[in-house]
Amino acid sequence: MNSNRHFDIIVIGAGFAGSLTALGLHQIGYDVALIEKGSHPRFAIGESSTPVADLILRDLADRYDLSWLREISRYGSWQQTHPQINCGLKRGFSYYKHQTGQPFQTNVEHKNELLVAASSSDEQSDTNWYRSDVDAFFVDQVKQQGIPYWDNINVKKVQRIGDEWQITAIRVEDKFDFNSNWMIDATGSDAILNQLGVRSGSEGFRTHTSAVFSHFSDVKPWQNWLHENDISSRDYPYNPDHSALHHLLEEGWLWMLRFNNGITSAGLVFHQHKQSNAQTWDEIIGKYPSLTELFEDAKPAKLPGKLIHTNRLQRRAQQAAGPRWVALPHTTGFVDPLHSTGIAHSLSGVERILYAFEIGKDKPALIEQKNRQYEQAVFNELDFVDLLIAGCYRVMNHFELFHTYTSLYFTAAIHYEQKRIHGNFNIGDQFLSADHHEIKKITAKAYRNVQDLPDQKPVSEHAIQAFRKVVETAIEPYNPAGLLRSSIPNMYYHTNAKI
Fold first, then answer.
1. Which pLDDT band, with edges at 50, 70 and 90, does 497 fall under?
2. Least enclosed by CB within 10 Å: which of 3, 154, 189, 278?
3. How high is the mean pLDDT of the chain?
4. Domain range holding 446?
């Protein structure tokens, strides 16, 4: 079988971002096709949504008449309208510092705990996306709109001939030849970019991490463990299992994201790129008695049914756009799962690419100009996310310093959210306020300041408090949430206005 079709735009990759890009382009009026190397449902991580992601979803819903995006932008409306799509309640970000060989311990001032609420109620809450359901749902929307969609397609060759892309693909023994004016790479990998002669690498990143992860069933709730061990959660802003749960360890940290189908996403992220093996998970979980109890009865979930080990997580392509092509942020690069930037960054890329294509089919030069601006923005955003995250790893074994440095991420996120909430957002504004000169300057200075602190053993209380004061003073003009000055230590009840 040989299929030869011509389209205005071909989107390669049918994760939620690729599907949403195709849907938006269709609504604008482009003849668009979507092709995918696998099939849905499939396992994927990148599951923790944020207020930024929710805000972008609602803006996209309104701009492109995609009302169902608004329905899945809050936990309450998601459960009312699409309860069949599994997700998890996510009230905020929770951090717990563990010591090797000891059960988790804290005190009334929460010295080893940090909870940051991003929403005021369960109904208004963010969500953890069970990606096998969510991505399949997005593809269903593509099909319902009549957008041509092919799955299990292996792209063998991508080439530019004259003003057209020619894409040769194989499905089993069938050959497909697609032609298009534009190509959008939403694969989240460098496979297509490599065919364009665009290389990716990890050079220049400050963060240097790797991971091992999977999905599990029968993982004990953390709040149950706290109560069984007489650790009060009475003044918590929310149940910590209803959050992006971070257990900070000597080796790095463990994420735990719960879904309402009984599955828990869990992954170990290592400070330095660590070549892990089949025993690594059990060895590290076994060093921390509290975590050992959480996973005592846990079993691998059917998807993916195994532990997945990564190489170094950091990567960045040399280009994010070129003649008649553009790549989404996750294809362009990735830093680290800390702070859950992935979904929101992908959505911000979709938003800006769609805005560029609104210019019109008859103005390709102007679209390419917008795409070049987008490319520079994405590179700057990756650099800023790297700056926000690398400092956290530098001080992760000093919890008070970690709390202080983490406040820089929340400062940047809240500033970006507030611009969108109050109608001060422009489509050219960069993700997480990466283009805000003063916020980036404050973060860069804090990063320089923490380089020497962890080498002091122990870090003096004077140095800890001095660093906290410097950061608290610097972020004051951008700190409506009261970061670092909460009346209840390490507990933030709501960092944002109602969204």
1. very low
2. 278
3. 95
4. 395-499
**Residue at 155 is within a domain:** yes
The whole-number pLDDT of residue 299 equals 96
**CA 178 distance to own-chain centroid:** 31
Whether 152 and 277 map to the same domain: the answer is: no
Cα–chain-centroid distance for residue 118? 15
Tell me: do 264 and 147 sit in the same domain. Answer: no
- Domain annotation covers residue 63: no
Q: Is the pLDDT of residue 130 over 60?
A: yes
Q: What is the predicted pLDDT for the residue at 274?
A: 73
CA angle 205, 208, 211 (to 5 degrees): 135
* 344 plus 417 within the same structural domain: no
**Total structural domains within the chain:** 3
Domain boundary among 357, 391, 425: 391
Answer whether 246's CB lies under 8 Å from 227's CB.
Answer: no
pLDDT tens track for 350-404 = 999 999 999 999 999 999 999 999 999 999 999 999 999 999 999 999 999 999 9
Per the structure block, which two tokens stand in for 456? 């002091």
Across 237-246, average pLDDT: 98
- Which of 363, 391, 419 is at the close of a domain? 391
* Predicted TM-score (pTM) of this structure: 0.97
Percent of the chain residues topping a pLDDT of 70 = 98
The answer to the question of residue 53 being in a domain is: no
